[in-house]
Amino acid sequence: MRTEVTSRVSRRSGVLEFAVLGLLREAPMHGYELRKRLNTSLGVFRAFSYGSLYPCLKALVQQGWLAEESGRAPDDPRATSLTNRRAKIVYRLTAEGKERFEELLAQTGPDAWEDEHFGVRFAFFGQTSRDVRMRVLEGRRSRLEERLAKMRASMARTREKLDAYTLELQRHGMESVEREVRWLNELIESEREGQDQREQRGPGSARERARPDDPSDDRTI
Amino acid sequence: MRTEVTSRVSRRSGVLEFAVLGLLREAPMHGYELRKRLNTSLGVFRAFSYGSLYPCLKALVQQGWLAEESGRAPDDPRATSLTNRRAKIVYRLTAEGKERFEELLAQTGPDAWEDEHFGVRFAFFGQTSRDVRMRVLEGRRSRLEERLAKMRASMARTREKLDAYTLELQRHGMESVEREVRWLNELIESEREGQDQREQRGPGSARERARPDDPSDDRTI
DNA sequence: TGGCGATGTATCGAGCTGATACATCGGTTC
DNA sequence: GAACCGATGTATCAGCTCGATACATCGCCA
After folding, report:
1. pLDDT tens-digit readout, A59-93
2. Residue B56's pLDDT band (cuts 50, 70, 90)
3. Backbone angles phi, psi at A214, to 5 degrees
4. Which of A51, A143, B44, B167 fits a disulfide with A173 by CB distance 3.0 to 4.6 angstroms?
5. Which residue does chain B place closest to A148, by CA atoms?
């Protein structure tokens, strides 16, 4: 299988590439801001370091998917001052880059739903067709169910031999996975419902919207 | 701060070192089996590769914490046969190694409850005093609460600007953390209860033991 | 004026992973 | 019985990633 392998910038993972292209699709940015976005908007799950980001940006430029621009407008008088304005490199998505991102967005194989990729893929679901969304969600679900099966088998095999804490750890791990499966079920259900009568409601409609009764939802610290 | 830094085998993380010492405390083993244990008993969360394990074992031997032994008993006639029996290296914990592990077990600082370490630390809770367990559990809990605060603040700041899927992703991420906090609360409560009348019940007593009504608990696949 | 934290680009050592190589063992299949 | 194959077992490597750090400027407040 594995029909959708094309050359990648960083061969392994390629998740950074995807995220960068996706973020730049919305607006040009420089490295520092990209990293901030990466670690907040998408982040929580993954954190990327400069040591990964800058080389990645370079590679993407070389591929022709990004273009560099000076941060200062050319008519800015300060641009030629004695201090030799620090270069603030703004990256912009090229037409080829947009195409590339589109191509990556359309992928629905393991590269879309394995652990390292799924979170970022999900964050860009808004730019995908429901068809692709469904395939990715279902792919991930079956992946997790497979994992659950392995965990259950392993636990049944070793239950007696393990100490109470190890067992508790495994139980908790399994419940985490089970919880994600439930989440996926809700999302899939929600996608199915929204078949025709969607009014930009997004994926949250199947849930009762967290804590509708708690006024201090945000800003609690 | 950081008073408990001592020299480590692999400086970064050191989690492999800890796990290896802990597993070998129970019984001598060779690399292959160690790795299997690492990725099942403790695993699920973390997975270690040979590329990490073998160098680590070497370093631990050099430190004098492990001793190598030939897998074949010296009186095994096959040991000198023409095929030159493949070396099956069994590792055994030395007295110094046992001491070292004890030392690591007693640590209750960030190195015990940060993401990379906590899982493995927890798996060896059975060999620790309740005092240490409490400190580690509470340390982790406060770490997670700190993270929650950051996430909430970040969400409050960016709520309007984010697309529905990104928002849903963040919501789910936050609930995951909240869930782990609840788990920690149960564990801490359970440790407190067991103050005197513990009868080897382990940490699960605060929970109702998963699915007492489901006979197909294991072996469902 | 001077300090300081946020912004900004960039690199490096060290560590880790996935892939792979190599070899033996035990069991099944034709 | 021989050919095969998956599990056992040790070991290495290229490539990728991270945390730390260096360096410099900006905006702001005292």
Report:
1. 999 989 999 987 544 434 433 333 344 568 899 99
2. very high
3. -105, 105
4. B44
5. B221
Reported in sequence order, the residue ranges of chain B that DSSP labels E, i.e. its strands, are 29-30, 66-70, 89-93
Distance CA B78, CA B87 (A): 12
- DSSP conformational letter for A38: I
Region label for A219, one of left (φ > 0), alpha (ψ between -120 and 50) or beta (otherwise): left
As a whole number of angstroms, the distance between CA A120 and CA A111 comes to 11
> CB of B11 under 7 A from strand C?
yes
Q: Please give the Cα distance from B130 to B58 (Å, whole number).
A: 33
- CA distance readout (Å), A128 to A8, A73, B220: 21, 34, 35
Nucleotide nearest A49 (Cα, C1'): D18
Q: Return the structure tokens found at A16.
A: 């950074």
Whether the predicted pLDDT of B100 surpasses 50: yes
Helix locations, B8-129, DSSP H: 15-26, 31-37, 50-63, 95-105, 110-113, 115-123
Residues 181-210 of A near strand C (Cβ < 7 Å)? none
User: At A91, phi and psi to the nearest 5?
Assistant: -105, 140
Q: Against a cut of 0.85, is the pTM above it?
A: no
Percent helix, percent strand, percent coil in chain B, to nearest 5: 65, 5, 30
Which B residues in the span 149-188 are in contact with A, Cβ-Cβ below 8 Å? 149, 151-156, 158-159, 162-176, 179, 183, 187
CB contact at 8 A, B62 and A188: no
pLDDT at position A130 = 94
Using CA atoms, how far apart are residues B185 and B206, in angstroms rounded to an integer?
10
| A92-123 CB burial, b ≥16 within 10 A, e <16 | ebbeebeebbeebbebbbebbbeeebbbbbbb
Three-state SS for B99? helix
